[in-house]
Amino acid sequence: xxxxxxxxxxxxPEFIQGAWMTLLITLCSLxxxxxxxxxxxxxxxxxxxxxxxxxxxxxxxxxxxxVLFQIIFVYNVLPGFGLRFSAFTCAVLALSLNEGAYMAEIxxxxxxxxxxxQRTAGMxxxxxxxxxxxxxxxxxxxxxxxxxMGNQMISMLKSSALVSVIAVQELLLVANQTASASFRYFEAxxxxxxxxxxxxxxxxxxxxxxxxxLDPKQRRSKSQKRLSRLFKLPKTAREAP
Amino acid sequence: MxxxxxxxxxxxxxxxxxxxxxxxxxxxxxxxxxxxxYGTAATxxxxxxxKAGKLTGFDIDLMTALSKEINLEPAPMPMEFxxxxxxxxxxxxxxxxxxxxxxxxxxAQVDFVPYLKIGSRVVVRKGNPEGITGRDLTLCGKNIAxxxxxxxxxxxxxxxQRCLDAKKPAINVMTFPAATxxxxxxxxxxxxAEFLSTPGTVALLSEKPGVFEAVGAEFEADTxxxxxxxxxxxxxxxLLEKGLQGLVKNGTxxxxxxxxxxxxxxxxx
Lengths: 241, 269
Prior knowledge:
The structure holds two protein chains of two kinds.
Chain A: H1 3-10, H2 13-45, H3 49-64, H4 67-77, H5 87-113, H6 116-124, H7 129-159, H8 171-182, H9 185-214, H10 216-231, H11 235-238
Chain B: H1 2-25, E1 35-40, E2 43-44, E3 48-51, E4 54-56, H2 58-69, E5 73-78, H3 84-89, E6 95-101, H4 104-107, E7 110-125, E8 143-147, H5 151-165, E9 172-176, H6 179-188, E10 193-197, H7 198-207, E11 212-230, H8 234-249, H9 252-259
Parallel strand pairs in B: 1-5, 1-6, 8-9, 8-10
Antiparallel strand pairs in B: 2-3, 3-4, 6-11, 7-10, 7-11
């Protein structure tokens, strides 16, 4: 049990590359997952029944099977149907498809949480449906879905470890390979654990920053505080809305 | 007042029982008393694999016969290959029975009881599209599928170093959890070659004819495969050796080698 060896592993190029690959897979899958989720959420809101049925089938299929199953399926079974992708592409594909299902439900709840009065007001102002969605509904929904999205971001970081079974050189596989070769399981796995905690902390900081930036009350009071401090206004003037 | 003292007495009894419990289980020398718990990665034909839902293979047969010799009940515990040595060291299994090759790095972690001597072959897709001629520099720049923690991984990394020293492109070593994954990777063209034991190659070529072919000569034909016991566990080591000698004496050893179609050269007794 040598802490020195653990730091050696932590700073070794293989571990750094593994951590980078984990981050890359996480970010790519999240991006694709959010886009897919948005499409599915809007599909469920749309009036045509085929859209609702398709969305329901997708959610049922991809939430009903384990992520590991989906990863192995995309990697080993799809080539039989002529769809052969690289290991990285298979990983991102499987993770995005799975994530899309969960994101769809989160985004749908966010969209529903925006009061219908907002949409009515938009229509009264003469906006098209697209404009209402883009300028009124989505910005408000985005604020509401931030905490569960942050959750999904962090859980995606952990799910990325599953792709080690299809030989993607991400952090967990590198740690396992190092441990198998040197038999120093404690040091190798701790080094990987520290990387995962580091990345999770970064995600949490990013989420809290995003929440504070998007919160209108905080934004308003912050800019007020900045301006009033700049002009050295008396305290009573600072309370003005 | 009385309820408090009653509670205290119950808690005291519970704590006493909990402290005595581990003392009681220390009496047995095996993980489960009367049973020989062995770890095995049941994805390695023909040594250990699952056929029609049943665990079978040369190692399984050998261990069943050996356990009878030493009056213990065999209790297989299938797991991934890379988890075998940690499980042994963590006292979750008594021995490893998974066609584990003997090499110096492992010998520093566990004690071995060798029982067979086998070599390895290079296996490629039928037709050999990458033109690999064996375990030589034709492997440079290719993808090799290996089992994580297996001997093939160390062999592939040695070959990779050899390629780099000869100023040739590096080998891409793809590590998979099981030996079957490596075979699937080669058959799909994701990997260009895999290293497989000679008996395993024979089994693979007969199970899946027309998909694979073996190229080049057999290499490392003097490698021993062995049971592994915890370092310093001389009691289990002696028990296994005694059982093995018993099997050799009553002819079961030779019988099993013939049953699984191994060449006579694999026998070390």
